[in-house]
Amino acid sequence: MGKPRTQLREPTYFVLASLLDGPLHGYAIIKRTAELSGGRVRLATGTLYTALDRLTAEGHVELVREEIVNGRARRSYGLTSSGAGALRAEATRMAEAARLVTDRDRRLRAGGSARKESTA
């Protein structure tokens, strides 16, 4: 049995999700993360690059291109297969957690009863 994955923090989840369609440079990752999260996740530049350094060290993202634009380095990062797997595992974990609640809510609305907690 493999090592269980730890859950991803919301900013990390959306940084990885922002790279699903292909490599992006830092500012584009910040914009895409805010867009995908409905504005809940707003990353400062320093926070993003700290996360990207960590995700690179973990093997979840990789530097795919570096170019000089207006005298500044612009780095583009891409999702690795490990990063895609971590993202997929987290999406599955969240979907299962949501299903637990929505299924129970559906039963309650249909006239069923929630399982009573036992008191010890």
Annotation keywords:
3-stranded antiparallel β-sheet; 52% helix; Arc Repressor Mutant, subunit A; single chain; 120 residues; alpha+beta
Describe this structure in words.
This protein is α+β, with helices and mostly antiparallel strands and 120 residues long. The chain has a single domain (10-106), classed as Orthogonal Bundle (Arc Repressor Mutant, subunit A), CATH 1.10.10.10. The protein contains 4 helices and 3 strands, in the order αβααββα. The chain has helices at 10-18, 26-36, 45-57, 81-109, and strands spanning 24-25, 61-69, 72-79. Strands 1-3-2 form a 3-stranded antiparallel sheet. Helix 1 (10-18) packs across helix 2. The longest helix has 29 residues, at 81-109. It is elongated and about 65 Å long. The mean pLDDT is 88.
Q: Topology, pairings included?
A:
Blueprint: H1 10-18, E1 24-25, H2 26-36, H3 45-57, E2 61-69, E3 72-79, H4 81-109
Antiparallel strand pairs: 1-3, 2-3
Helix pairs in contact: 1-2
